[in-house]
Amino acid sequence: MILDKPAQVERMQICRNCKFVDYSAKRPTCGKPIIGNIVEYEGNKYRTCGCFLDVKTKFSASACPLGKWGNYKSEKDTLDQARELLERLKATPGRITQAQRQQLNKIYPALIGRKSNVSQCPPCIRTAVKELEEYLSYRPKAKRGRPPKTQKNENLKTEN
Ligand code: SF4
To answer: Measuring CA to CA, which residue among 36, 46, 29 is closest to residue 135?
Structure first.
């Protein structure tokens, strides 16, 4: 859903005052353009998303990776959904239902910031799951330093 204009402006204003905004591309991006980068903020490590902010700030489902958008963030809900989804996928190793794949398609761009390419292709799904696991490993407040290694799920197959 597209946010109303005042909310978009509010988000963009927060981004313009953020030290992680990057102006090296033609349009401002959240961290290093396209790929993002790992940053330290208030003692914790986070991954910026590399999104073009003129686009990212428009969508209600998108979220500041550092949680700076206040009332305009939906990040906590999305993070909770992502954790639940990864737990369910771990409980059924090597399998993903269509509903789970659709949920992954929604959560992945909201958190990672890139357009999702999570089709029925098992390598795409594995990559998205691995990136989400990596992203979430940076989120717990108590955790510092290198994230734990992600568990490989090499035999992931899709179900309809
Ligand atoms: S989305 Fe968040 S981290 Fe990225 S530039 Fe904006 S305020 Fe900074």
So the answer is: 46
